[in-house]
Amino acid sequence: MENSKWIPTVCYQCKAECAIIARVEDGVLKEIRGNPHARGKACVKSMSGISLEYSPDRLMHPLKRVGGRGEGRFEPISWEEAMEIMTDKLQALRDSGEAHKMTASFFPHSITDPKWRFLNAYGGFLNTALPHCDSAKIVSWIKTTGGVPNHHIPPAWFTVPKGGIMILSGRHAFGGLEDAAIPRDILDAKERGAKLIVIDPMFTPDAAKADWWLPIRPGGDTALFAGMIHYIIANELYDKDFVANWIREGDFDKLTQWAADKTPEQMSPICDIPASDIRKLADECAKAPSVGVDSFKGIMLGNAMDFSHAWCIFLAITGNIDNPGGQPLPDLVPLSPVEPVPTPPDLHELGWHRTGPDRDKFEKFSFIMEPTWYEAQAIRNGDLKILMVAEANPALTEMGDFGWQQAVQEKDADGNYKLDLLVSFELFMSETAKYADLVLPDRSFFERWELLYMPWWYNYGHGVALRQPVVDAPGECRHANDVFIELGKRIVPEYFQFKDLIEYYDIELSGLDLSVEKLQEAGGHWAPGTMGFRKYEQRGGFDTPSQKVHLYWEDLEEAPWDQALPRVAPPAEYVAHAEAFPFYLVSYRTIYHAGSGQWTFNNPQLRDKVSGFHSNPLLMNPAAAGELGISEGDNVTVQSPSGDVEVAVALTERIRPDCVGLAHGFGSTVGAVATAAGGVSDNRLIADAGTTLDYQDLIGGEAHVSTRVRIVT
Amino acid sequence: MKQIGMMIDLNRCIGCRTCVVACRNYHELFDHQTADPDNIPYYLRVESRVQGAFPDLTMDTWIRPCQHCPEPGCLDACPEGAIAKDLETGVVQIDEEKCAGCQAETGSYPEEKAKSAPCTATCPAHLNVQGYVNMAALGQFDEALKLIKKENPFPAVCGRVCHHPCEEACSRGEKDTPVAINAIKRFIADLDLDPETRHVPAIKAAKDQRVAVVGAGPAGLTCAYFLAREGYPVTVFEQLPVAGGMMAVGIPAYRLPNDILEAEIRVITDMGVDIRTDVALGDDVTIDTLREDGYDALFIASGLQLTGRLDVVGENLPGVHSSLDILKDAALGNPVELGEKVIVIGGGNAAVDAALTVKRLGAKNVSLVCLEQRGEMPAWEHEINDALEENIEIINGLGPMRFVEEDGRLAGVEFQRCTAVFDEDGGFAPAYDDCELTSMEADSAIVSISLVGEREFAEDGGIALTSAGRLWADPLTLQTRLDWVFAGGDSVHGSTSVIEAIASGKQAAASIDRYVRGLDLKAAEERDWTMAGKVFREQYDTSERVAIPRLAPEEREGNFNELEQTLTQDMVMAEAKRCLNCGCACMQSCPFGVLQFDGKAGISHKCNFCYDLITTGQKPVCAEVCLTDALTVGESELLKQEAESRGLAIIEELSRASHLYVK
């Protein structure tokens, strides 16, 4: 294997983006490993990256739509022709003063992403590729500690001491999405004598390794944590030093008052966890040297911010902020700006609000990343004219029974599409590409440069990582970032004075005395040192206005409801549909798939029964199925208030009898592997968040997984 | 020999399958252009077990690579000698040059090859038929005998009396006629008759627990054979004066000569099994006394020795016999007085054998009368043909109504017309037309109807019975309601065949072994015997099936000489070459199902423990990439010590070869 070498780069089979090394032999990608200079692990998706790279379904040439949107008929065109079409349309919209009606839907790999720069320079806005699954957590931590958006930073499990407690509440941590090293870190901590507690309506692989599994009723997390807060305060088990020194004056009194009636007995019927267990868990947590909490599904409900608020309070009063084993706060290492820095458009000033016609009702509410993903609604309102999609698949991921697919086909009185231009950057033909005017062949993560700097990520929390080409791109594939830079040079050249992507990254890295080349030499990954604990002590406080931790959020006192402290009731959407739709839908994830795209669902290794996850049957508890006369393998119709799917039932004891489970993201209709393997889309059952605004707290929470269903045989 | 193994820590394995994909990538097991889900080769897989009910659940996951067995079955099964165990590491490897994929053609039928050949799948004892037939084709008869005796202690018996469902299923039958599998086996097995060439299996280290077996028939002796091989002291109690059960006293010598049976039983006694004849369960020993004598487990395979009653007038007259008694007396050399005209009543194999036996004992005129029409008769086709060849008159569609008495003994039988043998559901429920009577004169009548077992000892000993009056045992484990007592063979399953009794005895031995070792009996893994169903080869040896030499009817008169003869070596080798090798022999031998057929290369392949890596001080890929560091590689013995020092319990259920599964 003379011509074989290992090259450091970064995986992008899911949003975690773990540092990996790739073995290339005679120019062909052969194997993947975790990068030993980083956290050293790569998961099954990452290993399957080579099947993505060499998929026979890869797109190689630019395509232009010839039929109607959705027909999927295209003709090949040159890159230059595609560039001209995009430039002309973008220029015209900008000239008409409506640049903010352009958006790019993509996953922001990094705050250094040049697509983001283009949007700010052009005057468009960012529309992330994925629902804001963690926005409630972000907003809560900003309000509580003033810290930077604490995105996917789970507790640093590798710092949990002996006796420490690790709580996964609606979080399948062994399923990835944070870092492939997390399962190891959790199990190592367990071997050191830490305790793993899993709170989940399903008996996940994490639950199988847990010291204690609490099969909670969906939506009951806030009540569970409120009950624990009550117990801890009532028994004076809170961290008295932290409360006295670091919590804003008056907040703890208000909390005590609020907690007075949140007894475990009162909370138990909401979360379906016995009061004695709530007390036991609270007692163990209060007495443990550390408690770390991670959640994901728990913060995807309409009242998600109530839970993330309760969670912040719980960690604050037990003294688990920025301590070993508790909730870390990231330490920023700023990159250098690339001058001149473009200013993003002020959408409020431009009269835009994400709730469109419901603006009057919801004007008061703000959101961390103002525009969100209500693309269908924005198209219908005339608020969206140009949509450029990269590494996203809104035709399948937009919830609400495929409303997106209908909206992009809507025409105005003159017979023109309301959405003037739809561009899709793709590795494979996708559901979204079928509707696109231009389908542009993108480069895979093995074929492109990318500087990854997301300081609030588990992986890069304290450093930067370099994605670099390890193999040549096939055909005429170009990376979306290069295309956006070229569009920038054509439309807003003053902001795109640098030669190319490498020079752009070199400028950003210069403040750290780094460059792309130096990063390459350093093994593709750079970190300044240790993460540091209790950084607020050295800094003299937190970044809140009072420099203390805020438990009481007075700005939310006078909403249509009082949300200054958490509301413990079950999510409104669960209550509203309880009678007609008796089951909770658990839209669960596995380590084998991420999102709803072709990346993993068209990957033969990840759909193979031996090495992946083939299809998604409806998981039902045998007791519940028996009552309905349903047997293993029966085909049933699952109906929600917004859609229905037909699916075969798989019986398992691993789920609560009042829940049914459907693995998320299946239902691809494009790609040889994806279509052969089958599966149904849970997104069809989940209402578009734009249609369920009444159930949402409209700050952080979005009701995009809190769906109830009924089963029809 | 040094043995490298892996310690698989179930506290850490999360079943994520990262190793499966990494292994595939490293060994370049698939082609990107053609990879489609569920048809991608792999060297290891993840298994899991969920136990309990919501919300009290446990779930374990673990990987299953090649176990690099201390005594690999695949090595014995391979007719090409392509599989070897590396002396330095204990790694089991397939030599790609030598492996011929059991005569696969490159680029052909991977999926079909990976399934079990129909012969193996159909055989109740799942002998690796393709393996021994292939070895016979190459003249490797010693090896072939060893392979057969891994699964069956009575191949010479079976080679003579088996109804060979393997041949009915044989893929060659789709082309022309099936391979003469049983005749090939008989030739190989006859090596066992000669003390110089016989195969006595190696006995593992002696164990302390003692096992008692009641019944020295095929089920009981098979159980004893397999337990003896595992090192258990076994005592077999037999109520007859000879060992062998129905093989000795139910099958006439013209099918199974005594010396053949004796030779195979001698192998078992030479393995240390103590057979005590003339000891009756219920009289001389009871379940309780065996317990008191300190046996740790008991296997009851007492068979069926009583003939059921017809409930017909005159049934007890002198001159009315049961086929069982006639066959037994003939086998034991007791005098039998029957007269010239004999009527045998019954349509099964025992009836046919009774007819052929009394013919040999001097009866001039033998008729066989049965309820069933010719096509419905339960006797095997070839046995019916034997009867016809020897001028036995077969009269179908009559049922006995009365045995006619004259001078205090039998003078004839009156029959009525049987209009239907079975009811609408296929149950035995004969219907008669009592207007149509047939009378036949006879000096003797032999009744050959279904047999029943002794029940008293069972009832006394607390063994539950089924509604059919047989012993009840769990179908998977053969355990009775008394946890230390197991039951099998005909006494549980009803009248079956020798090979089914052997399968039952084997199942009992495995279960008893688990029982005395304190393992979970229910965790016995049931192998999927999915059959290869298609023959793709177009180029093959088109020779016709060998004609098996038989005594001419006139040569059989008045003697018990063997009816069928053994093939010659040339005939066997030629016949064995007719096998289409529709499955892979090694795959069929692997209890863990870890071998795969590579259709592209036309050979078998499997995990080689990343031999190139481990012999240069690196980890195998699975251990290298394991997401949770659940895999530790090292010498098996040292790993055991490590497990002990870390307080990890070895999971015996899973740790059956060189890898340690711990928790």
Q: How does the SSE layout of this entry go?
A:
The complex is a heterodimer of chains A (713) and B (663).
Chain A: E1 4-10, E2 19-25, E3 28-34, H1 44-47, H2 49-53, E4 63-65, E5 74-76, H3 79-95, E6 102-106, H4 114-122, E7 125-128, H5 135-145, E8 165-169, H6 182-192, E9 195-199, H7 205-209, E10 212-214, H8 221-234, H9 240-246, H10 251-259, H11 264-271, H12 275-287, E11 291-295, H13 304-317, H14 359-362, H15 375-381, E12 386-390, H16 394-397, H17 403-407, E13 421-426, E14 438-441, E15 450-452, E16 464-467, H18 480-491, H19 501-510, H20 516-521, E17 525-526, H21 535-539, H22 572-576, E18 583-586, H23 598-601, H24 604-607, E19 618-620, H25 622-627, E20 635-639, E21 644-651, E22 659-661, H26 672-677, E23 708-712
Helix pairs in contact in A: 3-18, 4-18, 5-13, 8-11, 8-12, 8-13, 11-12
Chain B: E1 4-9, H1 18-26, E2 45-53, E3 56-64, H2 73-77, E4 83-85, E5 92-94, H3 110-114, H4 118-122, H5 129-137, H6 141-149, H7 155-161, H8 165-169, H9 172-175, H10 181-189, E6 211-214, H11 218-229, E7 234-237, H12 246-249, H13 258-270, E8 274-276, H14 287-292, E9 297-300, E10 306-307, E11 320-322, H15 323-332, E12 341-345, H16 349-360, E13 365-370, H17 381-389, E14 393-396, E15 398-406, E16 409-422, E17 428-441, E18 444-447, E19 451-452, H18 456-461, E20 485-487, H19 490-493, H20 498-516, H21 553-556, H22 569-576, H23 585-589, E21 596-598, E22 603-605, H24 611-614, H25 621-625, E23 631-635, H26 636-645, E24 660-662
Parallel strand pairs in B: 1-24, 6-7, 6-9, 7-8, 9-20, 11-18, 12-13, 12-18, 13-14
Antiparallel strand pairs in B: 1-23, 2-3, 4-5, 10-19, 15-16, 16-17, 21-22
Helix pairs in contact in B: 5-6, 5-10, 5-22, 7-10, 10-22, 11-20, 15-16, 16-17
